[in-house]
Amino acid sequence: MNITVLYDDFNNTSLLGVNSSSNRIFMANPYEMLNPSAINPAFVPIIVTHAITFLIGIIGNILVIATWSLRGRLRSPTAVFLVSLAAADLLLLLVFVPLETLEYFVISWDTGGNVCKMSSYVEMLSGMATVLNLVAVSIERYE
């Protein structure tokens, strides 16, 4: 996809557009590329949502794991599956969410790089672990 940035004199802002002749980004004011909120108007709500989700998720999953490990009587199969679910969520929160948030701060993201591959791998691993843990809890609770 080719991108052109059109400059709006009335609002003193740049507008992104498609250009079919080159693979370059053209801006009348190139310093606007350093401001992520100029490129993405939903930047602040996205970052705030990611930060709140990150903090609540980290605290909640650590509390689940700590409660299970400190209490000897919570060793039922359901509790073990729920701790495994918390560990999968913690993996997603510690690896994928910061990298996903970082994408909003950079101009271009290397989609073929190792960090992108690791991020995709962790996302899929955590997602599959979550689904399989929930299936295991459902089967165990059914019996």
Folded structure, characterized:
The chain is mainly alpha-helical and 143 residues long. It has 2 domains: 1-34, no CATH class; 39-142, Rhodopsin 7-helix transmembrane proteins (Rhopdopsin 7-helix transmembrane proteins, Up-down Bundle), CATH 1.20.1070.10. Helices cover 61% and strands 8% of the residues. It is built from 4 helices and 2 strands; from the N terminus they run ββαααα. The chain has helices spanning 36-39, 43-70, 77-102, 114-142; strands at 3-8, 13-18. It has a two-stranded antiparallel sheet with strand order 1-2. Mean pLDDT is 79; it is low at 1-15. The chain crosses the membrane at residues 42-66, 78-99, 119-139. Belongs to the G-protein coupled receptor 1 family.
Q: What's the SSE pattern?
A: EEHHHH
CATH architecture annotation name of the largest domain: Up-down Bundle
- CATH class group of the largest domain: Mainly Alpha
Question: Major sheet: size, sense and barrel closure?
Answer: 2 strands, antiparallel
The structural class is: mainly alpha
Q: What is the count of DSSP helices, taking H or I runs of 4+ residues? A: 4
Please state roughly what percent of the residues sit in beta strands, choosing from under 5%, 5-15%, 15-25%, 25-35%, 35-45% or over 45%: 5-15%
Q: What multimeric state do the chains show?
A: single chain
As laid out across the biggest beta sheet, the strand order is 1-2
CATH fold assignment of the largest domain? Rhopdopsin 7-helix transmembrane proteins
Radius of gyration: 22 Å
Distance between the termini: 53 Å
Superfamily (CATH H level) name of the largest domain? Rhodopsin 7-helix transmembrane proteins
| Count of distinct strands | 2
Keywords: G-protein coupled receptor, Membrane, Receptor, Transducer, Transmembrane, Transmembrane helix
Subcellular location: Membrane
Protein name: G-protein coupled receptors family 1 profile domain-containing protein
InterPro entries: GPCR_Rhodpsn, GPCR_Rhodpsn_7TM
